[in-house]
Amino acid sequence: MVVVLASSTDASGGIGCWDLNTGSEQIRYKSFSSPSHGLVSVGDRFLASSQLRDASTSSASVFFWSWSKPQVEVKSFPSEPITPLASNHSGTYLVGGGLSGEIYLWEVETGRLLKKWHGHNTAVTCLVFSEDDSLLISGFKNGSVRVWSLLMIFDDVRRREASKIYEYSFSDHTLCVNDVVIGYGGCNAIIASASDDRTCKVWTLSNGMLQRNIVFPSKIKAIALDPAEHVLYAGSEDGKIFVAALNTTRITTNDQVSYITGSFSNHSKAVTCLAYSAAENFLISGSDDGIVRVWNASTHNIIRVFKHAKGPITNILVLRQENDLSNPMSSNLQGTSKKKGAQFPPLEKYANSMDEDSDKTTIVSLGGGNICMDVSYLSSQVISSYSKELQSQGSAAASEMEIEKLKRDCQKSVQMVNKWKKMYENLHQFCVKEMLDGNEK
C-alpha cells in the first residue's frame, strides 16, 4: 500500500495519512505546527517532525510517532529551534538544521548528538541526503547551497586540517532557497534548487558546474524530479506547477529563450510542496489552500484530492507500507505488542564526550507499528570498539591472509609463465616449419 502523508502549519490539523490508491484516510497523527521540510520518515520505521508552536519563540521540539499510533511516542528538545529534518535511508542518523545556521547529526538508536557544525551564518531551510547517503545537501536563507561529505564530517583530523569542510558551496541564488532535490548517481548526481529569486538552478556533482539556470515568472516554493530526470516540476507562489525540460536545449518562443515547456494548475494559493510517486507515475502537490492534489504526471489530470486542514500544507511524503494503518488487526500482524512503547532515548541537546555504555547494543522498537518495528543495529561506539579490537588483535591473521594471497598470486604467475613458454615453443616450431617449406620450393 502506498500512502501519502501531509503536515500543516495548522496546529489542529496534525499529520494526515491517506491510501494513495483508494483515497481513504488511514490515520491522523497529533502534532502542533510542522515547518517546511520538517517531516521525515526515519528508515521507514517511524515518523519524525520538527515542531514550532510559535514562530517567535526560541524553544522548539522534535516529535516521533510509530506508524499505527496517533499519539507522540518520543519528544525531544534540541538546543535551538530545528526546522528542516533529513534521515539517511537506513534510519541510522537524523540530521536537523537550526535557525542559527548550525547543522546537527544525531544517532537515532542512542539519541547521541554525534556531530554539530556551522553550516552558514543564516538559517538552514532544507536538507537532503544523496542516494548512497554519502553526501548531505543543505539550502540556506541567504540563497546558498552547500554539499557536505559525511566522510569529512566524521573525520576530525581532516576537519581540523581543512580550510573548508564542505565539498561545494553554490551562491548563485540571490534570495532564500526554498527546496533542494538530488538525482541518482551519488557523487555524479545532479542537484536542483528552488528560490524566491524566481529561478531554479541545476548543478552536477561531478565537477560542481552550473548546468541549467531556469527562470520562472514567479517565486518557486517547491520542486520535484521525475525518475528519469528528464523533467523538473516547479511549484510556484501563484499556484501553478511549471514543467521544465532538463534533457533538451533551450526553447525559443516569441523571441524568449526558456527551458519551460508548460504548466498546469488547480490550486487557489501557492504550491508549497511537491512529491513524486514513481510506481504510479503520480505527482502530489500541497498548497497554502490546505489541499493535497494527486496528478497524473503524463496527462496533468487530477486523480485524487485530499482535504487536510485549514492551514497551509508544509510537507508531503510518499511511502510504501505493508498493511492497512486504519485496521487495528493489521498492526498486530508483525507480532508487536500494543503495550510496547518507544524504546529509544530522546535526542541529546548537547554533544556528550563521555562514551557511557558504549559496549551495549540497543533495540529500536516502536510498538503497534504496521511493519516490524524491532530493529537492531550497532551504534557508532560499538563499531569503533570493534575496529580497534581488529586493529590490535588481527595482525597475525592479517599476515597469514597476506601470505596465502601471495602464494596464490605466485602460483598464478608460474602457470602464466608455463603457458607463455608453451605458446613460444609452438610458435618457434611453426616458424621453422615455414622456413623449411620455403627452401624446398
From TrEMBL:
<feature type="repeat" description="WD">
    <location>
        <begin position="264"/>
        <end position="305"/>
    </location>
</feature>
<dbReference type="GO" id="GO:0006364">
    <property type="term" value="P:rRNA processing"/>
</dbReference>
<dbReference type="GO" id="GO:0005656">
    <property type="term" value="C:nuclear pre-replicative complex"/>
</dbReference>
<feature type="domain" description="Neurobeachin beta-propeller">
    <location>
        <begin position="91"/>
        <end position="322"/>
    </location>
</feature>
<dbReference type="GO" id="GO:0006261">
    <property type="term" value="P:DNA-templated DNA replication"/>
</dbReference>
<keyword id="KW-0853">WD repeat</keyword>
<dbReference type="InterPro" id="IPR015943">
    <property type="entry name" value="WD40/YVTN_repeat-like_dom_sf"/>
</dbReference>
<dbReference type="InterPro" id="IPR046851">
    <property type="entry name" value="NBCH_WD40"/>
</dbReference>
<dbReference type="InterPro" id="IPR020472">
    <property type="entry name" value="WD40_PAC1"/>
</dbReference>
<dbReference type="InterPro" id="IPR036322">
    <property type="entry name" value="WD40_repeat_dom_sf"/>
</dbReference>
<keyword id="KW-0677">Repeat</keyword>
<dbReference type="InterPro" id="IPR019775">
    <property type="entry name" value="WD40_repeat_CS"/>
</dbReference>
<protein>
    <submittedName>
        <fullName>WD40-like</fullName>
    </submittedName>
</protein>
<dbReference type="Pfam" id="PF20426">
    <property type="entry name" value="NBCH_WD40"/>
</dbReference>
<feature type="repeat" description="WD">
    <location>
        <begin position="117"/>
        <end position="150"/>
    </location>
</feature>
<dbReference type="InterPro" id="IPR045227">
    <property type="entry name" value="WDR18/Ipi3/RID3"/>
</dbReference>
<dbReference type="InterPro" id="IPR001680">
    <property type="entry name" value="WD40_rpt"/>
</dbReference>
<dbReference type="GO" id="GO:0120330">
    <property type="term" value="C:rixosome complex"/>
</dbReference>
